[in-house]
Amino acid sequence: MTITAHIDSSRPVATLINVFTVAPERQTELVTHLARATEETMKHQPGFICANFHASQDGRRVVNYAQWETEEHYWKMRANPEAQVHMDQAAEIATEVWPSLFDVRSTHARA
To answer: What's the pTM value of the predicted model, to 2 decimals?
Structure first.
């Protein structure tokens, strides 16, 4: 099995967990939009580290787990008009959007 993400509590990064509520018939559309926005815009922003998108099995949620080098980098991205267009489009697809910044406090993995 390939490991695609490494979460490290010893690195001080800004972790965004953004939970989108979406109609099940639009879940794939939202994930596709978020992935395209990341490839086209977000990953080219200063301080971007990674973004991962998770689709709930019931079709009603999409979770964006993203990391930025610092909280300042995250807020600069949010103020960027090009990024704002993508965020506004995602909000039009979703019925609710709940972004929050977190600090990684503890991680556990199988040896």
So the answer is: 0.89
